[in-house]
Amino acid sequence: MSGPSPRIQSLPRAQLDDFVKENVRQFIEDEALAVLDNPYVTPAICQQIAQNQRLVGFYSVRLKLVANKHTPQAHAVKLVHYLYWSDLVWLSVDVKVAAPVRRAIDNILVNKVDKLTLGERITSAKRCSQTLVKALLFDPDPKVFAALLLNQRVREDDLLLVAGSDRASSAQLQLLADDRKWSYRYAIRKALAMNPLTPRSTAASLLRTLSARDLRLIHANPRTTVYVRRCIERLQPDDAEKDASARGSDIQ
User: Fold this and answer.
1) H/E element holding 18?
2) Where are the domains of the chain?
3) How many CA atoms lie less than 13 Å away from 246 in the CB half-sphere?
4) How far apart are CA 79 and CA 49, in angstroms?
5) How are the residues of the chain apportioned to helix, strand and coil, as percentages rounded to the nearest 5?
6) Closest CA to 62 of 111, 98, 54
7) pLDDT given at position 237
8) What value does the mean pLDDT take over residues 2-16?
9) What pLDDT shows up at residue 239?
10) CA distances, 68 to each of 14, 43, 197, 234 (Å)
11) How far is it, in rounded angstroms, from Cα 139 to Cα 162?
């Protein structure tokens, strides 16, 4: 039945309308898909297909309807509930899909994220939307965070949230410090150096890249570990002596 598909895909506008009116009730799966691939497909045609329970019983038709920008949003939003996770992730970042439909997809993804296997979370993290990025930022398995670092939709603000958080694991913080792209961002280096959960050798290695002002701020921060504070004192011995003198004056 694949023979008629190319012909249907190339039907002119008027002929496509007539073809659908006369045959939609008898469409087979391939014919419905070919109609949806026709550049002259209209919202009215998409609606006729979406309202045909036999046709939307085919997974491929449901997927094609949701992906088609001409499908009325009410039908598309209804059909997203009957798609596989991997297709939802793909559709959530497809700018050709209407924004309300993508928001409905994001809601489904976020609500189901706790039910995913580790492999599904890793795969999703590599290419998911901003909404799901935020839901996966503090995933307990560092492999998920490593996958997020590959996602082009991850923003510096997302990673600053991790770098400065007491919810982050030392493994996550180490991954961020080792990342070639993000570890060059000054704000991230500073946040990592300030976070007491960052492995101390890693935090210490970042100190030389920070300004004298920020080193003083980190040294004065009560959350800073003794080890990191001593490293700063070795980098700025004069400032360390001034701090010691100031503390002595306060005691007197």
Assistant:
1) helix 13-23
2) 1-83, 85-154, 183-252
3) 7
4) 12
5) 70, 0, 30
6) 54
7) 63
8) 84
9) 53
10) 20, 9, 47, 62
11) 11
Residue with tokens 């009730």: 25
Q: Which of 111, 113, 176, 188 is nearest to 149 (CA)?
A: 176
d(CA 249, CA 168): 38
Q: What is the pLDDT of residues 189-248, one digit of tens each?
A: 999 999 999 999 999 999 999 999 999 999 999 999 999 999 999 987 665 445 444 444
Q: State the Cα angle at 228 between 222 and 234, rounded to 5°.
A: 120
Q: What is the DSSP secondary structure assignment for residue 209, as one 8-state letter?
A: T
Find all residues with CB under 8 Å of 203, minimum gap 6, and list them: 192, 193, 195, 225, 228
* Tokens coding 76: 């598309």
Q: Cα–Cα–Cα angle for 14, 51, 58, nearest 5°?
A: 100
The H or E element containing residue 198 is: none
Q: Which two tokens stand for residue 126?
A: 């590599």
- pLDDT at position 125 is 97
How far apart CA 42 and CA 13 sit, in angstroms, is: 9
Q: State the Cα angle at 209 between 204 and 212, rounded to 5°.
A: 95
Q: Across residues 121-140, what is the average pLDDT?
A: 96
What share of the chain in percent tops pLDDT 70?
92
Q: With a cut of 80, say whether residue 252 has pLDDT above it.
A: no
Residue 236 and residue 212: Cα distance in Å, rounded?
Answer: 8
Of 53, 47, 35, nearest in space to 74 by CA: 47
